[in-house]
Amino acid sequence: MTIRYAILGFLSWKESSGYELKKIFEDSPYLYWSGNNNQIYKSLLQLQKAGLVTYKTVHQDGAPSKKIYSITKKGQEELKKWIMTAPAVPEFKKPFLIQMAWADILSKEELKALFARYEKEIETQLNFQKEKYDREKDWPNRSPRETFLWNMISVNLMSTFQSELAWIRKVSQQLSRFEE
Amino acid sequence: MTIRYAILGFLSWKESSGYELKKIFEDSPYLYWSGNNNQIYKSLLQLQKAGLVTYKTVHQDGAPSKKIYSITKKGQEELKKWIMTAPAVPEFKKPFLIQMAWADILSKEELKALFARYEKEIETQLNFQKEKYDREKDWPNRSPRETFLWNMISVNLMSTFQSELAWIRKVSQQLSRFEE
DNA sequence: TGTCTCATGTAAGGGGTTACATGATTCC
DNA sequence: GGAATCATGTAACCCCTTACATGAGACA
């Protein structure tokens, strides 16, 4: 379960409550989970049972109590071990390709429209990406090298969508060869 | 559940048994499911209950009986309806980016090694891709346009990995700026 | 003798999602 | 009065994966 390591990573940067982690997951595009309660609160419980994190309960007035989690020494070791393991193969799930596989039953207008829709969808995603990148200023940059790493993560996400966009545009363009 | 539509698609091309479908899913990279029994046999059952497919049992000697599934008229209509719906956003899951996010704790040698591993992994995936593309000859090509669509699917998968490869190479190269 | 192919199916469990539940405060 | 924010948690359900089960014939 990679999500536990993603949480461990964040806690290695700064201690947080489940609620804060939830928000981070919700709007970090490279953290590809939805950030729902079930996952985060359960993961924190498991991490705590495994001795990789601890928490202290902080009482607030005018707001509910919260549990501030922080990483343990064992957690830090476990994190480093994981970072150095062989990277997993990235997963690409594109239901659109399955639509395309059987799209020859569509008329040329219908096909054109389908491609145009996908192009718009990818453009939208790319813009979301850019917006998020511009908004984020409070990421870890404890060293120039760390800042570089985080920039490259953003570049990766954007170039993934850009590559998809270039592809669908080429497909749309080449489709015209089959028209008359 | 997209897998049911993927199955419907194949059955719209030619009737098949669950066993045959399983093999198709196992080595079609754009069909991003593992192609395990549970999924395929259950999906076929659901499709059949919904009246989108039917089957006839074929007895063989020297081999177990099999169920040959074929698409119904209702199934064809359902498939066309789905193909014309708004394409879903592609999903990209890259655990490597999470490793990278916290990789500043590594030494330069360790970081270099991590990047080199990822590069090799992507190269391997790209080669798998190419091999499969070269091997596949018995795909639907009932019209030049259909052949074009299937070629573009392969191009998509390859360019996705190529884009990832270009990115990791650039990252590796730029990393040298932080060395001394 | 052991493994591979053909062929269908089940069991168990992990991972992920949405929705529900509570309860105070703040903002419109 | 109603929605949003803070904060933690549970329930129900779907999807997906690995592994198990059966049983015949082919091949080394």
Architecture blueprint of SSEs:
The structure is a homodimer.
Chain A: H1 2-13, H2 18-26, H3 37-49, E1 53-58, E2 66-71, H4 73-83, E3 91-93, H5 95-101, H6 108-135, H7 144-175
Helix pairs in contact in A: 1-3, 1-4, 2-3, 6-7
Chain A binds a DNA duplex (28 and 28 nucleotides) through helix 2 and helix 3.
Shape, per Cα inertia axes of chain A: elongated
Number of strands of chain A: 3
Give the SSE order of chain A as H and E letters.
HHHEEHEHHH
Q: Specify Rg of chain A, calculated over alpha carbons.
A: 21 Å
Number of domains of chain A: 2
Percent of residues in beta strands of chain A: 5-15%
Task: Trace the largest sheet of chain A across and list its strands.
Answer: 1-2
Task: Summarize the main sheet of chain A.
Answer: 2 strands, antiparallel
| Mean pLDDT metric of chain A | 94
Structure keywords:
homodimer; 180 residues; mainly alpha; Arc Repressor Mutant, subunit A; 2 domains; two-stranded antiparallel ribbon; 7 helices; 3 strands; DNA-binding
What does this protein structure show overall?
Two copies of one chain form a homodimer. Chain A is mainly alpha-helical and 180 residues long. The first copy, chain A, has two domains: 3-83, Arc Repressor Mutant, subunit A (Orthogonal Bundle), CATH 1.10.10; 95-178. Chain A has helices at 2-13, 18-26, 37-49, 73-83, 95-101, 108-135, 144-175, and strands at 53-58, 66-71, 91-93. In chain A, a hairpin with a 7-residue loop joins strand 1 and strand 2. In chain A, helix 1 (2-13) crosses helix 3 (37-49) and helix 1 crosses helix 4 (73-83). The longest helix of chain A has 32 residues, at 144-175. Chains A and B meet through helix 1, helix 4, strand 3, helix 5 and helix 6 of A and helix 1, helix 4, strand 3, helix 5 and helix 6 of B. Strand 3 of chain A pairs antiparallel with strand 3 of chain B.
